[in-house]
UniProtKB/TrEMBL annotation:
Signal peptide: 1-24
Pfam families: Amidohydro_2
Domain Amidohydrolase-related, residue spans: 101-317
Species this protein is from: Prosthecobacter fusiformis
Gene3D superfamilies according to UniProt: Metal-dependent hydrolases
Record lineage: Bacteria, Pseudomonadati, Verrucomicrobiota, Verrucomicrobiia, Verrucomicrobiales
Name of the protein this chain belongs to: Amidohydrolase family protein
Keywords: Hydrolase, Signal
GO molecular function: hydrolase activity
Length: 318
């Protein structure tokens, strides 16, 4: 296992690079203007819907992201958990861990990287552990058709706890990480594991009256859904604001969103999960999410937590 002191040194070096980047921006900003505030994006991918690395880098820069965490796909395979190969590449043609690590090595401080493998591959724990020893800072994105409390999933929860890294999970009804209503049993069983929830079923369940088959629900929200309760009841559960599902949850009931931000201000993390090439304009869901977080946060302090400070703390970047 990578010693915790080595991991802290690795991650602290990233924060030092981030600080240097911010200082450089401040020096080049026009007189009398403030440097951009740092933003951590915990959810991006390489080769996302065939997007090239040059467009990925430009996209993140245009959005004003100062640190990006790249989440790899697992090994391509044909088995039920990948829908006989149809969901390889996280269902979006994303590439594997080595591509994420290379970008992070080429852009120290600006990029960090995760480790991943198909959950029910016999070699998954060993494969992921190999990358954790080399400095991966997260497990995921776990996006496979398994039960969220399966024995194979639990091996990865144990691994995440052992290496003190989060595990990020895509919850989608009848497709990925099934059994969200039972997730609380895993949150309780593995209190030393940090779980990050993401995607349609996760965000739909902020509403007490959520209908499981409705992946992008609209209209007013009644607090007290499963996600609302899990975030309140389990210190080891966090929310990834990324993708169309996250943006939909932000915009469907703005009054609820402001109260939700107030309630869970220490648990929400900004992620983009955006395949756009340009980082701006109506086609960039990641930039829209940043704008809505800034618009709906009840205070600037809470906005800063969601866009930067919560991830900084969770990934021990300071």
């Amino acid at each position: 296992m990578l010693p915790s002191t080595s991991r802290r040194a690795f991650l602290s070096s990233s924060l030092a690079s981030l600080a240097a980047t911010a200082m450089a921006q401040e020096k080049t900003s026009p007189p009398g203007t403030a440097a951009p505030e740092p933003v951590i994006d915990i959810h991006q991918h390489t080769h996302f819907h065939q997007r090239g690395d040059d467009h990925l880098l430009a996209h993140q820069q245009a959005m004003g992201i100062t640190t990006t965490i790249l989440l790899p796909a697992g090994t391509p395979t044909s088995r039920p958990s990948t829908h006989e190969g149809r969901s390889n590449g996280l269902g979006a043609q994303c590439l594997g861990t080595e591509t994420c690590r290379k970008i992070a090595q080429d852009h120290p401080g600006a990029y960090l990287w995760g480790a991943n493998e198909v959950t029910d591959q016999d070699t998954a724990p060993a494969e992921i552990e190999k990358w954790l020893k080399l400095g991966a800072c997260i497990i995921g994105e776990q996006k496979f058709d398994v039960e969220c409390d399966s024995s194979q999933s639990q091996k990865l929860y144990e691994l995440a706890a052992a290496y003190h890294v989060p595990i990020l999970m895509h919850f989608q009804n009848e497709r990925y990480n099934r059994g969200y209503e039972r997730l609380h049993t895993m949150l309780a069983k593995y209190p030393q594991t940090t779980f990050i929830g993401h995607a349609q079923t996760f965000w739909g369940n902020i509403d007490k009256h959520h209908q499981p088959k409705d992946l992008y629900p609209k209209g007013k929200i009644t607090p007290g859904g499963l996600t609302d309760r899990f975030l309140a009841d389990y210190p080891n559960f966090f929310a990834d604001m990324s993708a169309g599902s996250g943006l939909n949850a932000l915009t469907r009931d703005e009054e609820h969103t402001t109260a939700f931000f107030q309630r869970h201000q220490d648990k929400i993390l900004y992620g983009s999960d955006c395949a756009d090439h340009f980082g701006r304009g109506p086609g960039c869901q990641g930039a829209q999410t940043i704008a809505m977080i800034r618009k709906l946060s009840p205070t600037q302090a809470i906005e800063r937590k969601i866009l930067f400070a919560n991830a900084q703390k969770l990934f021990r970047l300071g």
